[in-house]
Amino acid sequence: MTGLRARQKADRNRRILDAAAALFREVGYDSARIEDIAERAEISVGTFYNYYENKGDILLATVSMEVEEVLDAGRAIVEDPPASVMGALDALIGVYYDHSLYYLSKEMWRTAMAIAIQQPESPFSKRYTELDGRLCEQVSTLILKLKGKGVVAIDIDAEAVGEMFFNNLNTMFTEFAKREPMTLDDLKARVSRQNRPLATLIAAR
């Protein structure tokens, strides 16, 4: 019985997240109402508040779901990366970017970023920062894996270089979110070009 209740709770939570993401995309984050989210999720408003206190909580939960799935996909690349620095970076960053608009629109990303900046000590901001940290760590782990395979020079600080690659891909994703006309292909091409000089410098000779 406990297992059934847990599955029912997880199903309701997923319905809420899916309903909210769809409504945010259709009418915008600011215009979306809790009542409409609850109606789409086929639950009462009271039940909604058993899961989330406000729309910001839902947005954070959606960001968390996004990043968790991206991290899972990234692990497979880190475990068995392509045999060149650029190939490995393009593969991992491609996974990050290709999944970025699966649940969230650019407007939703801008809102999440703004909340994280405006309320740096809030649970939302702290969780957002933690998720960024986990992505950064995965990039550094990829560089360390390549170093272990002899693809990256032995004297390279894998953690520091991974942080540099992540900081750039994160900054460029912010630019992507700010610019509606910019496509994912444009983003990936620009970041790949920017990564190439450093990737060349750290490659084993």
Notes on the protein architecture:
By secondary structure, the protein is mostly helical. It has 2 domains: 1-52, Orthogonal Bundle (Arc Repressor Mutant, subunit A), CATH 1.10.10.60; 55-202, Orthogonal Bundle (Tetracycline Repressor, domain 2), CATH 1.10.357. Helices cover 78% and strands 0% of the residues. The chain is elongated, with a radius of gyration of 19 Å. The mean pLDDT is 93.
Mean pLDDT across every amino acid position: 93
CATH-derived architecture of the largest domain: Orthogonal Bundle
Query: What is the CATH fold-level name of the largest domain?
Result: Tetracycline Repressor, domain 2
Major β-sheet annotation: none
Low-confidence stretches: none
Helix content: over 70%
N to C succession of SSEs: HHHHHHHHH
Distance between the termini: 60 Å
What is the approximate shape? Answer: elongated
How many domain units?
2
Count of runs of 4 or more consecutive helical residues: 9
| Strands, count | 0
Structural class: mainly alpha
Q: Kindly provide the name of the CATH class of the largest domain.
A: Mainly Alpha
